[in-house]
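Batch job 17 of 40 flagged for manual review because the log was empty.
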Amino acid sequence: MPSPHPTVRTIKTYRVIPRPNPQAPRQLHLSSWDVAMLSSHYIQKGLLFAYPPELSTEQIIKRLRSSLEEALFHFYPLSGRLRVDTCDEGGVTCHVEVGCEGKGAEFVHAVADGIKIADVVAADGQDLPKFLKEFFPLDLAVNFDGCTNPLLSVQVTELIGGIFVGCAFNHVIGDGTSFWHFFSAWAEISRCQAVGKDVMLSRPPVHNRWFVGGYGEPPINLPYSSPTKFVVRFSPPPLRERMFHFSSESLARLKAKANRECGKSTISTFQALSALMWRCITRARCFPPEQKTSCRLAIQNRARLQPRLSQNYFGNSLYAVCATTTVGKLLDNSLGWAAWLAHQIVSNHTNQAIRDLVHKYMDNPFVYSIHMFDIYSIMIGGSPRFDMYHCDFGWGKPLGARSGNAHKYDGKISAYPGWEGGGSVDLEVCLLPEYMTALERDGEFLAVVSPPVKLGAMLGTSSK
């Protein structure tokens, strides 16, 4: 068992500064999707690896620093700083200063005393360990003291038998798609450097920001007198956090059931799974039948816009679409009925709908806050399509993906691909303790959730 109070010790902190990129602008203006994230927590995600026996700690740290330096050359906004300024005519604007001398990204080398890789994975039925939040650098929230903010910080934590590579990534600079694009490119560079190959990224990032026509030139002027007017701190109540695994076979049965019950053939696997979680968590909460409840899904804009944005677009490009009904209707009707509601909100998120939302935002710009999500709903972020388990730095497939303490509140769900692939899914679920206990006993939920992949199987596959 892990120590009840594990200690994460910082060994050394480095500053990783890339060589100058002649294609990088000195200043990068932010789109409406970016500036709306000014009060958001940093994205905190990381990967667990078995310790490569052929490498020393010094070699691992040196390789990760060197490959990060090259990655920052290609993803040049991450080595800059976010700047927010007050305008003479009122309001604030923000941009990224790219060519900041001596800035770069922070790289922390740390050691977690007494923590094994099995403690991080957590056995079936166990909550995620609280010490995970210590595997990530930086504070959760953006701090506008001095009007500048780092955009990336990395922490590499040594464990007993493993290492954890954690990133804190400013949400203003990009969404989950951009985060994992950067992470996979960093790993690709590390693999190339390990065998002496020239670095030719398979997916070079696209840095040109997307702006809707008809509103003049950036920067976007926000109607606030200072950052203190839109930066909102959030402290959630004590939560239970668990990872739940859903095998590809179980999800195939769930999808077939949802389509059969609503008489359709267009319900996707993820829509069926979202409907399941919405129903089961709502039942666990025991809200009155007349109470309104919503299921919010973070959904990509890239492929829905016409013309399409590149999948390599580096920035934010997403919305949280919302299906709403009453508790009574949600629970009295079938899984297929709820899945059809989820399907409709996804289908309705078209090119025109996206452009209408951007036009509406530009007429009345604002900054998102976690307080906008009500206590009667669930919010599903992340994606099982993120290619986390191909982030091989040259020492094998990751054993697991985990998050820090950012964007955690009652009803928040984050989706990950299952370790074994094949369409399997892992969900990180955050609930108040009494709701989590009820969910763990819910018959509809238990009929679908699957046993997790055993650590021994993962270690056997990932070893070289």
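Reviewer: the log was empty due to a logging misconfiguration, but the result itself is present. The longest strand covers residues 105-116. Unflagging and moving on to job 18.
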